[in-house]
Amino acid sequence: MPRQNISSGYAFEDAYGYSRAVRVGNQVFVSGTTARPPDLGGDAYVQAKAALATIADALAKTGAGMQHVVRTVVYVVDMADTQHVARAHSEAFDQIRPVSTLVQVSALTPASARVEIEAMAIVCG
């Protein structure tokens, strides 16, 4: 089965040695994704929207879309941001309803990130 690696051009991908997304067969895995400047300076809602946009772009490069997402994992530094992150997640996935896990962590990279989101998609049909 062929493997397709997708880069978003983020310098940390080369420094860390990872891909933004990988497609193998009908499965697509998107790495944990944070906002980038200038959105990185925004609140958790702005950051989550930006991360989800980067995820959508990575999925598109594999021939998938947000409608194919079956699972997300959302990492937050502060549980007080949950409502902001949930709003962005709901706007992106309201009709899709992937399974999702929300986890509080002590820190993210970059340090100003308030939320990081990873996704898994299955392209059916």
TrEMBL record:
Taxonomy of the source species: Bacteria, Pseudomonadati, Pseudomonadota, Alphaproteobacteria, Hyphomicrobiales
Highest taxon of source: Bacteria
Gene3D superfamilies assigned to the protein according to its UniProt record, in alphabetical order: RutC-like
Any Pfam family: Ribonuc_L-PSP
Name of the protein in question: Enamine deaminase RidA
